[in-house]
Design goal:
This protein is an all-alpha fold. The chain is built from 5 helices and no strands.
Length: 84
């Protein structure tokens, strides 16, 4: 995706991989992941951070129960996604 910084794309992919391990009712799809990455890029995000993840998490997590579960794991998922 040429409009998304490579570092951000890598972090988004890692974050989504972590979300998919949470046994959500509906795991984020590839399309939702791409839309999220593009949305973050439009917001000027070059690296994932907790504030932007929490503001936009509903773009990739659709069920309220899943959203609560994911919100509780944001810090751990973010740490894993942003490790170099």
């Amino acid at each position: 995706m040429p409009d998304v910084d490579r570092r951000l794309a890598t972090q988004v992919a890692r974050f989504i991989a972590g979300l998919r391990k949470l046994e959500l009712k509906k795991a984020p799809s590839i399309a939702e992941t791409l839309d999220w990455a593009r949305g973050l890029a439009v917001l000027g995000v070059h690296e994932l951070d907790a504030a932007h993840v929490r503001q936009t998490l509903s773009l990739v997590v659709k069920h309220e129960e899943d959203l609560r579960k994911a919100e509780g794991k944001v810090s751990a998922l973010l740490a894993a996604a942003t490790r170099a």
